[in-house]
Amino acid sequence: MDSIYFFGNIVVSFTVLILLCNAPSEAQLSPSFYSSTCPNALTTIRTSIRQAVSRERRMAASLIRLHFHDCFVQGCDASILLDETPSIQSEKTVFPNVNSVRGFEVIEAAKREVEKICPGVVSCADILAVAARDASAAVGGPSWNVNLGRRDSTTASGSVAKTDLPSPFSNLSTLISAFANKGLSARDMVALSGSHTIGQSQCFLFRNRIYSNGTDIDAGFASTRRRQCPSNSGDSNLAALDLVTPNSFDNNYFKNLMQRKGLLQTDQVLFSGGSTDSIVSEYSRNPRTFLSDFGNSMIKMGDIEPLTGQNGIIRRICSAIS
Asked: What does the note under cofactor report (predicted)?
């Protein structure tokens, strides 16, 4: 599944202290962090990501989602990339991620290329952040200046992944709270959800919605989606999150919501008579505003609790402490 935020069961509130801790960390990140230590890092990463997306266009959505899954668990520290060991509880193997999050091999490939030119300099966490930006640009989406200087964690937390990543069945207030706990506004949440203009989702995550006969789903849309998602089989069958322009990064996702054609429950709740209706409407009318806001919100998300300075390490292999 390539959904950006639909992955857990229960949202746990963070303390205000954690949010306050973001500010000094953010100040240490800079787009020019590697300008002297590895001046060709960004070009090298971009080439690697473009090649991966060229091979499989769906990978763009997967890489954006991978960065999101990293940042919402322990901050943007590449913890999601760590494999299971006797001392590490991998985030890869828990429900929100297993058989769902993808793109690990693309990040490892980019890391190998960067290691060839600047060994031990560029963190996996930064490669994740840059890869998300380059993936967006590769499919016609916005680009932005990525703040750099993150370091990699030596730990992971499957248990936090289970609780801090919002469920695909969350209501609007739960989603708003989940993002607020990470220092992101409701507008950020709606903008980031716009990444569902690309990517795919698995049948079991939207089955209840398309068979609900609810008033919040277009009947024709539901009928179309039922063809590839039987009522009692085909759990892993995929459907595009945007039926109209599934391979283009545009604002059609928001137009779909206004026509009751959101694939996931957590898509449609953004336009269901609640506080975010006006934002959806604005983005449906103004694609430039959406693209600009998406880039700005990705920058904010990338600044969630980074490890900087002497904290963390620079992994030479993203999947292991090295």
From this structure: Binds 2 calcium ions per subunit. Binds 1 heme b (iron(II)-protoporphyrin IX) group per subunit.
Residue 151 bridge partners (DSSP):
307
- Name the pLDDT band for 178 (thresholds 50, 70, 90): very high
* Cα–Cα nearest to 189, from 252, 109, 276, 285: 276
pTM score, whole prediction: 0.89
Reported confidence tier of residue 97, pLDDT bands at 50, 70, 90: confident
Catalytic pick among 67, 69, 111, 209:
69
Whether 322 and 131 have beta carbons less than 8 Å apart is answered as: no
Binding-site positions read 70, 73, 75, 77, 79, 91, 166, 196-197, 242, 245, 250
| Nearest by Cα to 256 from 236, 240, 235 | 240
67 belongs to the catalytic site: no
- In this structure, how many other beta carbons lie within 10 angstroms of the beta carbon of residue 320? 12
**Residue positions forming the annotated binding site for heme b:** 196
Distance, CA of 203 to CA of 64 (rounded, Å): 21
- What phi and psi values does residue 101 have, to the nearest 5 degrees? -70, 140
Distance of alpha carbon 272 from alpha carbon 278, whole angstroms: 10
Q: Which amino acid is at 55?
A: R
With contact defined as beta carbons under 8 Å apart, do 134 and 45 qualify?
yes
Question: pLDDT at residue 13 above 80?
Answer: no
| Among 144, 182, 125, residue whose Cα is nearest residue 294 | 144
Distances (CA, A) of 252 to 12, 239, 286: 32, 16, 11
